[in-house]
Amino acid sequence: MITFRMTTKADDSQFLEWRNDPLSLASKDRGPFSVDESAAMNEKLRHRLFVAEEDGQIIGTVGVSNLSGAIELAWGIIPDQRGKGFGKRMVKTFADSI
């Protein structure tokens, strides 16, 4: 079962590693994030970024934005969990919970 929790400062170093994964960077067409850039992003998103876990293991993240009255979701699967079918289940589970 996929569960969600709010991010914490304890997640910051892991987020930096995920953001600097080559596939993640390629999707953003940019170079690596610095520690300060990643920490600033975490603080800005802290109240609307969730960690997804299955059986106590982190599988990805889901972010929520409210743009002009419409809810927008953004998600990512951590590098070592990609290709295992978590993305669709994670987003469906999260959307069903809001």
Describe this structure in words.
With 98 residues, the chain is an alpha+beta fold. The chain contains 4 helices and 4 strands. It has helices spanning 12-19, 22-28, 35-45, 86-97, and strands at 2-6, 49-54, 57-67, 70-77. The protein has a 4-stranded antiparallel beta sheet, covered by helices on one side. Strand 2 and strand 3 (57-67) form a beta hairpin. Helix 1 crosses helix 3 (35-45). The longest helix has 12 residues, at 86-97. The mean pLDDT is 85.
User: What characterizes the major β-sheet?
Assistant: 4 strands, antiparallel
Major sheet: arrangement of strands: 1-2-3-4
- Give the overall shape: globular
Topology, number of strands: 4
Give the overall average pLDDT: 85
Structural class: alpha+beta
Q: What's the layout of helices and strands?
A:
Layout: E1 2-6, H1 12-19, H2 22-28, H3 35-45, E2 49-54, E3 57-67, E4 70-77, H4 86-97
Antiparallel strand pairs: 1-2, 2-3, 3-4
Give structural attributes.
about 100 residues; 4 helices; alpha+beta
Brief overview:
By secondary structure, this protein is α+β, with helices and mostly antiparallel strands.
